[in-house]
Amino acid sequence: MISVPVNCMGCTACVVSCPKQCIKMRKLIKGFLYPSVVQNNCINCGICEKVCPLISKIETHHETKVFAMKNKKASERTNSASGGIFPLIAQFVIKKKGVVFGAAYDQEFEVRHIKVEKEEDIAKLQSAKYTQSIMGNTFVEVGKALSENRWVVFSGTPCQCIGLKIFLKKEYDKLIIVDLVCHGVPSPKVWRTYIKWRSNQENDGKLPEHINMRSKYSGWSKYSYSTEFDYGNGNISRFPNGQDPFMKAFVGNICLRKSCSQCPAKGIERCSDFTLGDYWGVWNQHPEFDDNKGTSIVFTHSKKAIEILNEIKSQAECIKVDMEEAIKENSSMIVSSQEHPKRDEFLKEITYENFDKVVDKYFPKPNESGLFKRVKGKLGRILKR
């Protein structure tokens, strides 16, 4: 029988592995999903514990290289959080009649993993989603596609990727796993509360038609992007990232999942094939490569990744960079976010009526320049594909 650890990452490997289907993901008060067991149906087989990434260790690759990359197609880079490399990997697989799994918004802006089989749908998986995605039956669908001998891309947080690898139990030549340089996953409750607060403030409570938390309208270099809510009919609201209350809470680590402060997925060597993120600091390290439109940092961990990189790099600008240099301003690759001491209080207190006021309470405004400097520093460790 599963005993859920406090630092459970919510990967769902235990849920989809249970032979009696007696484990369900349940939403707790703080908004995070955790596995819950229907005791009467449990046969104490222990499979759930065998697939838990906190108990079972996964083998990692030991041949990591790192590159700075930019998609040559302007529209794909604009629609991406950084340099637009993920769509190139996804297109590579779809051209082979394969399938791509990744995080997308639903109609209510909940974040869920979906399956994509057409190139025109890849855009749904692009850009950053600032909350933990609902996995549903995704691991099972990945396994089914692989059993049909199809190429598969799975994109997710590092903990989701570890969960998938353990669930699958073996290597697949046609599986490409893409994780990201992850700062942490915010509470879905805080995300929903933020959307409701902002919609009330800006559009009489009506939800936006489109959300882009990494709009490049104001640029990209030196963390200059904006958070953008498009309500239609020309009604577009933008916050500079350093002024957006949700981003203040996020980079301040006050709304992250408990496990994010002790993340077992940190490290240069990964079980994934690729790790993607923003190349924060490229303006200092390779200023000639920075055009203020987004640059990706791309870690390749396997021979398979290098082979795919060679296939797609004609569609991108690409330079090899020094590992130590790349990590310097992108420390979320190797270091967990430190839990905010007032996290639990914040998560209990936040509502859509008081969202901005509660954020200001824990991150006061008086030292605006100091706060913005802190936000920028911490954003140097937030990376998305």
Structure description:
There is one protein chain. By secondary structure, the chain is of the alpha+beta class. The protein has one domain (58-385). 30% of the residues lie in helices and 18% in strands. The chain contains 14 helices and 13 strands. It has helices at 13-17, 47-50, 74-78, 86-94, 138-147, 158-168, 188-203, 245-251, 282-285, 303-312, 323-328, 343-349, 355-362, 368-379, and strands at residues 23-27, 33-37, 65-71, 99-105, 111-116, 152-155, 175-180, 210-215, 226-230, 236-240, 274-278, 296-300, 316-320. Strands 5-4-6-7-11-12-3-13 form an eight-stranded mixed beta sheet, sandwiched between helices. A three-stranded antiparallel beta sheet has the order 8-9-10, with no helix packed on it. A hairpin with a 5-residue loop joins strand 1 and strand 2 (33-37). It is globular and about 50 Å long. The two termini are 37 Å apart. The model is unreliable at 367-385 (pLDDT under 50).
Strand order of the largest sheet: 5-4-6-7-11-12-3-13
Mean pLDDT: 93
Shape: globular
Low-confidence runs of at least 5 consecutive residues: 367-385
Rounded radius of gyration (Å): 20 Å
Summarize the amount of helix as a percent range: 25-40%
How many domains would you count in the coordinates? 1
Continuous helix count: 14
Concise account of the structure shown:
The protein is of the alpha+beta class and 385 residues long. The protein has helices at 13-17, 47-50, 74-78, 86-94, 138-147, 158-168, 188-203, 245-251, 282-285, 303-312, 323-328, 343-349, 355-362, 368-379; strands at 23-27, 33-37, 65-71, 99-105, 111-116, 152-155, 175-180, 210-215, 226-230, 236-240, 274-278, 296-300, 316-320.
